[in-house]
Design a protein that fits this description.
The complex is a heterotrimer of chains A (287), B (747) and C (466). With 287 residues, chain A is an alpha+beta fold. Chain A contains 6 helices and 12 strands. In chain A, α5 runs antiparallel to α6. Chain A is rod-shaped. Chain B is mostly helical and 747 residues long. Chain B has a domain of 207 residues: Rossmann fold (3-Layer(aba) Sandwich). In chain B, a hairpin with a 5-residue loop joins β7 and β8. In chain B, α2 crosses α7 and α28 runs antiparallel to α29. Chain B is globular and about 100 Å long. In chain B, 44% of the residues are buried. In chain C, the strands form 6 sheets. In chain C, strands 1, 2, 5, 6, 7, 11, 12, 15 and 16 form a 9-stranded mixed beta sheet that branches. In chain C, strands 19, 20, 21, 22, 23, 24, 25, 26 and 27 form a 9-stranded mixed beta sheet that branches. In chain C, α3 packs across α4. Chain C folds into 3 domains: 269 residues, Class I glutamine amidotransferase (GATase) domain (Rossmann fold, 3-Layer(aba) Sandwich); 121 residues, Coagulation Factor XIII, subunit A, domain 1 (Coagulation Factor XIII, Chain A, domain 1), CATH 2.70.50.30; 38 residues, no CATH class. The radius of gyration of chain C is 34 Å and the shape is elongated. In chain C, a hairpin with a 7-residue loop joins β26 and β27. The chains are: A alpha+beta (287), B mainly alpha (747), C alpha+beta (466). Chains in contact: A-B, A-C, B-C. The interface between B and C is large, with 36 and 43 residues. Chain B: It is found in: Endoplasmic reticulum membrane.
Chain lengths: 287, 747, 466
């Protein structure tokens, strides 16, 4: 597209210069006419090779644009080899040529409607630039001049023609896709508060027990009766909690299982004895 | 066999130790028989893993043995569900593999090196021996008659309903799960009877093992609370029940939550809510019990009503809120399909497409259980007669088991144990009644009227006033006993026949009979999988319908797109769409999923019914469930509503990838115009389908497996149809467009 | 280590071939050996660049592009032939196979000579359309060489081509003198389809058009193409980077237009033609002497402070930090050089499963670059989704050989012991406290239950005895 953009002004300048010199091809009696299909009323505007129309003509979906002119070589009507109406989409610079039907005397006509337009031109946002190119073999200067703009009116009821941008190799938009956002924790203050609240239940529980008369007065009695069993039993309960703690922090299952088996066995064996002692106290009415 | 223990019992009636010794020997023999009858498949074929799911279990076990427990636990399997991968360690029930792994390592420690495959193949028979013993224990809890237990063990050992899932090579979760199911029930009854925390804890332990092994654990999770609930409703609440249930629930739930696949489900899904509800209910009852002992009865009445109403209201409200807020998952699709057999067909085709999820046909009951099916009600009736807590269990189990077995073929498996137990109770009662050589004297029977005990079988008419019951004639007794013996023998014959003929085929290898009667093995599956293994890149992705995913993974060792672990419906539907759409639609899907080969199963040449064309409608349905606009089941049926593959087939059908792959080049086997699909008895069109995006890579001997290679994008940018036409020599039509606008090239 | 290795590889590569990167066996298909003289400078240049030229008649029976499944030539040039068809060994299918086997083809046309059927159908497979009846002549009444085609206007004089797009390297027109022109005598214009593999190298000026001199001598009623839609020289690069170039005018490669002078209509002075350089570049591009990219090495590794930092592991974990580096070289006539990107272009890395999760620009990594290679790298955090992902560098640009590098890695989930510990998560503190309190409470309860003496022992006793 760069190429187009850089060449186009130069060519236009050149063409303009040629037209002014009037030492080559040109045209006369130029007119552009928009004919609607149903309503007979047609808008017709004169065009000249020196100055393009200031206002764009608009082409509706059912309209036909008719361009007619008389090509002249050095003022004389003559048939050129090349007589094109070129429509250009200004944004991309895409061009579509439409050859004019030319008679011997230079009278030339072209008719364009929506169905003749390439899809990129149909979907243009800005008015299309129409220019006329008239040239032929030999030494006569050709003519290439903008003549008018065409605004493509689209019908809101008709879906626009499908146009998928063709694949062109180039860089693509960047993607930074967060598949799943990280989990969030509530503010630390709240966690801390509730954590402390939970911890506070422990003293509350202990105080409650003490208030209801809980005590450990029989400890000496129990130890006196079965020191080893009680020590092992309570110790094994503690040990079990320690094993759980180790499992939580560092051990894996295969380290934990044998230890649990050992501790569990100790609990069971010492437990029968220790709890038997407790039972004996209960039976003796001391609990 | 069945006559043996009875005879022995009759002879060796004296002496307790002789009896127990006999019992042990008989049990051992029963276990041996149970194992032996499951070895048909190994003898007929070879020591091979069967069917579909077992291939995955086998593969997982190999991984476990090779990589150790923790690697297995954290296993990310990048060779299935390409490209999603599967967090296998977290989405399977590890019990089976860990069991095999432990056995493997134990045997190694004993310096008995056994190939892991053989352990896997023989695990199910070995556990079926244990199941027989567990059935013996369970039945012994029901009735004092020891013959009932032995009979139950025998029935359990050879009932086809159980054998169907536990022949050698059927290395599936059910292989060990049925043992665990029966044993857990035994422990539950034991705990309930004794009100013992120890038995309750053991029950929870085995429940945990069960959870680790099989998704069917939910059956226990629902049945035990139900039993407890029925007992409570019958006014049989007791501290024994409280102790047994709470111990089981608390420990069992904790145990089950250790399985990553289960995780928090026990506190989150509706299926587990009954157990939680009954747990709470029992706490209330215990509390009320305490309150009743503390306050006067009048006040207690009011208190009870207020309290019960309030709790119920709060509980219900909580449940509704939690469910609607999404904290508790609503009932899953599989659950609904248990109540409405059409539900799955309409809403979740992926569940309905599995043949073992179909409702059971009536003959299947007789086929799988033979005479047990008519002894079963008798046994249940006898349980009603006594109706202790454990008998209530049998009744509840029988009710639910039969319902579920009627809904889904595969739940026959959960029914079988209770049928065996109930039938054993019935048979033993009959035998005990008739095998007594003593003729009762009328006075005696009058005297014994109060106790009734042994002759429960004939004591149904309790209401009648003092009937003189008893069997007097030796003739009648022997008639009855011999008739029963014949039945038992027939049962054994039936079981053997069913096992050997129906349940021992590995389905990976097909057997057929040649005209001269000799057996001919059709080994197309392994031929094709071996081809894949030897001729494709190690990371070549194979697309096939999900049925073959595990086999490809296990036998061909190639990554697959979908497999029998149907966790991702969308991914399966994607494959279904690729199979059921035209090449132009399928190709981008296959490219996107990096498919290298497509595998289809085609039974047209051999008349093999389990092929993909027969399963095709399920693919269409599953795909339609996700893309109703792009795939429509209707367009695969002719205007007259027929599903055809011949010349009359619809255009959609003929253009579908599956059809093309199945029949590609098929008519070259026949004289022109004579191509016949022997499975569907259809004459195929003279011109076979053409494929442009795939090329045939392999077709097995009997054309059962056909493998296609997915072509790369055309090197010079044409679409495949054009490229294929060019290769065939068809000249490209010149783009003649006199009419219409010029097309502009944009750079 | 890697860079050393690649440097050695480069050295050996440089010694083996100092010309095309894909071999030097060049087949010239020419009808008349005498015609060779017209192209002596062009062919001499090729030979000078190290190609081994073999000349064959298109109808030749003995000509074979393949021997035992291997290519017998690396490149082919077609000069215009009068025959309507090429021989049995140059059918379009064989030519397509030749390209599929990474062979390069340069086709030249001429408006005076009808294009053979075989080439027309090959072109149409490549989505290039020639004028109907295989004849067409491009004229421009505004840009012609006044000295040789004052009347016929069929020698077009064009400025050397600019880049196709701003982000594409200009291989063919760069460095041309300001007043140098490209002569395009009596050529055929082609219409390109919208294929992404095609790129026009030289487009006709806006006022040029193509007509059939036999039928449309008087008036152009049915226009084949005009303006920039008419490609005079076009390039096609297949997916396997096999190259195909269509030069609309064989004459522009002839000696008489090399280093000649031309006078543009309306121009003040005669301009030098750029044709020789252009021919060198076009043939050089087609025969893999320029615009060839090479991936030297690819490396990805964990970008985390861990003890084991394996190179190119096959498995990562979700949310790992990963660094990816790719080293690329570009071949320019005689040697490998570091790849430099045009200002508007970037090298992108995709991390994709089914669709890209990340598409990130790769930045020049000077530490790993050298005189012959340039390394590009980027670091990023893997997505929080397990699966089988691809590191994908898909660098396809017009005129550069395709780079499509896919490195598959598995991204696994967190193992059970890789999650952040619960005491790190502040939200878990109340729960941990709960566990601690329960444990302590349980121990206290045990002690109390076993060792508590009754208070008001009588009441307890009386209750017991009830």
């Amino acid at each position: 597209m760069r190429l187009t953009q850089s060449i186009a002004p130069a060519l236009l300048l050149l063409a303009a210069g040629v037209a002014q010199a009037a030492s080559g091809w040109g045209f006369d009696d130029g007119s552009v006419q928009i004919a609607a299909k149903k309503a007979g009323e047609a808008v017709k505007e004169k065009i000249s090779q020196t100055s393009p129309l200031s206002k764009p003509v608009s082409l509706g979906t059912t309209d036909t644009l008719k361009l007619s002119l008389t090509a002249k070589d050095n003022g004389k009507g003559k048939r050129p080899h090349q007589a094109f109406l070129v429509l250009q989409e200004p944004e991309s610079g895409l061009e579509a040529p439409f050859p004019l039907t030319v008679k011997e005397n230079g009278k030339a006509v072209a008719q364009i409607s929506h169905k003749d337009l390439p899809v990129q031109l149909l979907l243009a946002n800005k008015p299309l630039k129409a220019s006329v190119v008239i040239a032929s073999f030999g030494s006569a200067q050709g003519l290439n001049t903008p003549v008018f703009d065409v605004k493509i009116e689209t019908d809101a009821n008709v879906p626009p023609p499908a146009y998928e941008k063709p694949l062109r190799y180039g860089k693509q938009p960047e993607i930074h896709h967060i598949f799943r956002p990280d989990p969030k924790s509530p503010p630390k203050v709240i966690s801390l508060f509730f954590g402390l609240a939970v911890i506070a239940t422990l003293p509350a529980l202990l105080i409650g027990w003490v208030a209801l008369g809980g005590n450990v007065n029989h400890l000496s009695k129990a130890i006196g009766a079965a020191l080893l069993s009680h020590a092992t039993f309570f110790g094994s309960i503690l040990a079990m909690e320690f094993v759980f703690f180790m499992y939580y922090t560092s051990w894996n299952l295969f380290q934990v299982l044998p230890v649990i088996a050992a501790v569990g066995a100790a609990t069971v064996f010492s437990g029968t004895k220790a709890l038997g002692e407790v039972q004996s106290r209960r039976l003796a009415g001391e609990r | 066999m069945s006559a043996d223990p009875l005879q022995a019992l009759a002879n060796a009636g004296q002496g307790k130790s002789t009896r127990s010794l006999l019992r042990v020997i008989i049990l051992a023999l029963i276990a041996a028989a149970a194992i032996a009858s499951r070895l048909f498949s190994v003898i007929r074929f070879e020591s091979i893993i069967h069917e579909f799911d077992p291939w995955f279990n086998f593969r997982a076990t190999k991984y476990l043995v090779a990589n150790g427990f923790y690697n297995f636990w954290d296993w990310f399997d990048d060779r299935t569900w390409h490209p999603l991968g599967r967090v296998t360690g977290g989405t399977l029930y590890p019990g089976l593999m860990v069991t095999s792994g432990v056995i493997y390592h134990a045997l190694r420690a004993l310096t008995i090196p056994v190939d892991i495959r053989n352990i896997c193949v023989l695990l199910a028979p070995a556990f079926s021996g244990l199941t027989a013993i567990a059935a013996y224990l369970l039945t012994n809890e029901m009735t004092p008659s020891s013959s009932a237990g032995l009979l139950a063990a025998l029935f359990m050992g050879i009932a086809p309903g159980y054998i169907s899932r536990s022949v050698a090579g059927s290395y599936d979760n059910e292989a060990i799960a049925i043992f665990l199911l029966v044993f857990t029930f035994y422990l539950w009854i034991k705990a309930l009877k004794q009100g013992s925390m120890l038995w309750g804890a053991l029950c929870a332990l085995f429940y945990g093992y069960m959870v680790a092994s099989w998704g069917g654990y939910a059956f226990i999770t629902c049945l035990l609370p139900l039993h407890a609930f029925v007992l409570i409703c019958m006014g049989r609440y007791s501290t024994r029940l409280y102790v047994a249930y709470t111990t089981w629930y608390a420990l069992g739930t904790l145990a089950s939550m250790q399985i990553p696949f289960v995780g928090f489900l026990p506190v989150k899904t509706s299926e587990h809510m009954p157990a939680l509800g009954i747990f709470g209910f029992l706490q209330l009852l215990a509390f009320l019990d305490y309150v009743r002992s503390a306050i006067p009865s009048r006040q207690f009445q009011t208190f009870l009503w207020l309290f019960a109403g309030g709790t119920f209201g709060v509980g219900l409200l909580g449940l509704v809120i939690a469910t609607s807020a999404g904290i508790i998952a609503p009932w899953g699709g599989r659950f609904y399909s248990l109540w409405d057999t059409n539900y799955a067909k309409i809403h979740i085709p992926i569940i309905a497409s599995v043949s073992e999820h179909q409702p059971t046909a009536w003959p299947a009951f007789f086929f799988d259980l033979n005479m047990l099916i008519w002894l079963f009600p008798v046994g249940v009736y006898l349980c009603f007669q006594e109706l202790a807590d454990e008998h209530v269990f049998i009744v509840v189990y029988a009710l639910f088991g039969s319902y579920f077995a009627g809904v889904m073929v595969r739940l026959m498996l959960t029914l079988t144990p209770v049928v065996c137990v109930a039938a054993a109770i019935a048979v033993s009662t009959i035998l005990d009644t008739y095998l007594s050589t003593k003729s009762p004297k009328p006075e005696e029977s009058q005297a014994a009227e109060g106790s009734e005990g042994k002759k429960a079988g004939k004591s149904g008419l309790k209401a009648a006033s003092k009937p003189v019951v008893g069997i007097y004639g030796l003739w009648g007794k022997s008639m009855m006993v011999s008739a029963l013996a014949v039945y038992l023998l027939l049962f054994v014959l039936h079981c053997t026949w069913v096992t050997s003929n129906a349940y021992s085929s590995p389905s990976v290898v097909l057997a057929s009979r040649l005209p001269d009667g000799s057996q001919h093995i059709i080994d197309d599956y392994r031929e094709a999988y071996q081809w894949l293994r030897q001729n494709t890149r190690e990371d070549a992705k194979i697309m096939s319908w999900w049925d073959y995913g595990y086999q490809i993974g296990g036998m061909a060792d190639r990554p697959t797109l979908v497999d029998n672990n149907t966790w991702n419906n969308t991914h399966i539907a994607t494959v279904g769409k690729a199979m059921s759409s035209s090449e132009e639609v399928s190709y981008p899907i296959m490219r996107q999923h990096e498919v290298d080969y497509v595998l289809v199963v085609f039974g047209g040449l051999l008349g093999y019914s389990g092929d993909d064309i027969n399963k095709f409608l399920w693919m269409v349905r599953i795909a339609e469930g996700i893309w109703p606009d792009e795939v429509s089941e209707r367009s695969f049926f002719t205007p007259r509503g027929e599903y055809r593959v011949d010349g009359e087939a619809t255009e959609t059908m003929k253009n579908s990838l599956m059809y093309k792959m199945s029949y590609y080049n098929y008519n070259n086997l026949f004289p022109p115009g004579q191509a016949v699909d022997r499975m569907r008895n259809a004459r195929l069109p003279e011109v076979g389908p053409t494929l442009s995006t795939l090329e045939e890579a392999f077709t097995s001997e009997n054309w059962i497996i056909r493998i296609y290679k997915v072509k790369d994008l055309d090197n010079i940018g044409r679409d495949h149809a054009a490229a294929a036409a060019f290769d065939r020599g068809t000249k490209k039509k010149k783009a003649i467009k006199k009419r219409g606008p010029r097309s502009l090239r944009v750079d | 280590m890697r860079s050393l290795f690649s440097f050695l590889a480069f050295l050996s590569a440089a010694v083996v071939s100092a010309l095309s990167t894909s071999g030097n066996r060049l087949l010239v298909v020419l009808e008349d050996v005498a015609e060779k003289e017209n192209y002596s400078k062009f062919l001499g240049d090729l030979e000078g660049r190290g190609f081994e030229l073999s000349f064959e008649n298109p109808k030749s029976e003995s000509l074979a592009l393949f021997h035992l499944g291997e290519r017998t030539y690396d490149h082919i040039i077609f000069f215009p032939t009068k025959a309507k068809g090429l021989g049995p060994n140059l059918t379009p299918n064989i030519l397509v196979d030749f390209m599929n086997a990474k062979g390069n083809v340069l086709v030249t046309l001429s408006s005076g000579v009808a294009t053979p059927n075989s080439l027309v159908s090959l072109l149409s497979e490549l989505d290039i359309q020639l004028p109907a009846d295989r004849t067409g002549l491009v004229v421009d009444h505004f840009n012609y060489d006044a000295s040789t085609a004052a009347e016929t206007h069929d020698v077009l004089l064009l400025p050397p081509p600019g880049p196709v797009r701003p982000d594409v390297k200009n291989f063919f027109g760069a460095g041309a003198g300001k007043d140098e022109v490209l002569a395009f005598p009596r050529g055929v214009g082609a219409a390109l389809g919208s294929s992404e593999l095609l790129t026009p190298v030289l487009r006709a000026p806006r006022t040029a058009y193509s007509y059939n001199p036999k039928e449309q001598a008087e008036v152009v009623d049915d226009l084949f193409g005009a303006g920039e839609q008419l490609a005079l020289v076009s390039a096609f690069q297949a997916r396997n980077s096999a190259r195909f170039t269509l030069v609309g005018s064989a004459e522009m490669l002839q000696d008489k237009w090399f280093d000649a002078e031309a006078s543009k209509v309306g121009g003040k002075k005669a301009a030098k033609t750029f044709n020789r350089e252009f021919a060198k570049r076009v043939s050089g591009w087609t025969f893999n002497e320029i615009g060839v990219l090479r991936v030297n090495w690819i490396e990805h590794h964990l970008d985390e402070a861990v003890a084991v930092n394996e190179s190119n592991p096959s498995i990562y974990r979700i949310k790992n930090d990963v660094k990816y580096t790719i080293s690329l070289s570009e071949y320019a006539w005689t040697s490998w050089a570091p790849l430099t990107l045009p200002a508007d272009d970037v090298l992108q890395l995709e991390f994709s499963m089914l669709s890209p999760f990340h598409r990130l620009p790769l930045h020049l990594d000077a530490a790993h670059s050298s005189a012959t290679e340039s390394a590009y790298s980027t670091s990023f955090k893997l997505p929080d989704q397990h699966g089988i992902f691809n590191f994908k560098v898909n660098y396809k640009r017009p005129f550069l050989s395709n780079i499509e590098e896919k490195n598959t890695v598995s991204v696994r989930h967190m193992a059970h012991d890789e999650w952040p510990r619960s005491f790190v998560i502040s939200g878990a503190w109340p729960w941990i406290a709960g566990i601690g309190v329960t444990v302590a409470g349980w121990l206290a309860f045990c002690a109390l239950w076993m060792y508590s003496a009754p208070v008001g022992g009588k009441r307890v006793e009386s209750k017991k005895t009830q």
